[in-house]
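Board notes, transcribed. Complex of a protein with A1CAB.
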Amino acid sequence: MKIGILGAGHMGSSIIRGLANCYSATDLLVKGHRVTPELQAFQREIGFQLLTENDFSAADVLFVTTPAPATQTILRATNVANHTIIISAVQGITPAQIQDIFPTNSAVCIIPNIPVAVNAGCIAMTKADAATPADQKTVDELLAQLGTIVAVPATNAGIVGTVAGCGPAFVDVFMSALADAAVQNGLDRKTAYQVAASMVFGSAKLALETGTNPDVLKDQVTSPGGSTIKGVVGLDEKGFRNAVNHAVNQANG
Ligand SMILES: NC(=O)C1=CN([C@@H]2O[C@H](COP(=O)(O)OP(=O)(O)OC[C@H]3O[C@@H](n4cnc5c(N)ncnc54)[C@H](OP(=O)(O)O)[C@@H]3O)[C@@H](O)[C@H]2O)C=CC1
Ligand SMILES: O=C(O)[C@@H]1CCC=N1
């Protein structure tokens, strides 16, 4: 299977990295915008084919990872085959908008997140009828290589995309703050980041693998009269939950 990737910025390069772990790099056809030294170095590192034109007629699937405002203009100047399945990762673009440009192609809209680079993404997918059942199966199998697919009706796609797609940045801020506190208490910076990231990783893994809700898990950590409950109360005093709620609603606006 030949897989095209249009746009090689943060999301495009994350998808490329995840795909290169599962597919032959020479089957990945990439078109960036400017051919920068960074893009050339990335090409040498991964070994994908770097296209010079927006011609994806050889691609069975095309990921679109271009800036939202320019995407429809870019797609109008892009060549695909009749059978090419279009997967848009562009926030705000709908399957109908893609089929307006490519009326005969299957179109699927997703909001992936940066962990697709290590095949641990959370991929919000809009349930729509813009792909044939056979093409949808191809998409599902392809995306399953990049992480967990959460398929929801169009009415919920926005909020799933916000929590999954923007959420890594919120967690990154949390890890950064944890590390700062550790450094403030004398730990070296490198170890502080390692501790913060492995703690977040383990907490997420435990929640996912046991299916236990986060409040029950929190109760398992807060020993009576212990140190953790003092920290949890401290989070409440500083409005942590409200801050998270505000962040999600701002991003989802
Ligand atoms: N970053 C994330 O975590 C997520 C991003 N997305 C979506 O991914 C898309 C890209 O976001 P992100 O990667 O963060 O942004 P970036 O700015 O990092 O990447 C955008 C890329 O698109 C390229 N580009 C611009 N115009 C063209 C063109 N005409 N042809 C080909 N490539 C072009 C840019 O190239 P150049 O720099 O040379 O102009 C750049 O590499 C957005 O639509 C966003 O909604 C979705 C989910 C998560
Ligand atoms: O910030 C953005 O607009 C994109 C979409 C989701 C994550 N990043």
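Residues 161-252 form a domain with the ProC C-terminal domain-like fold fold (CATH 1.10.3730.10). The chain has a mean pLDDT of 97.
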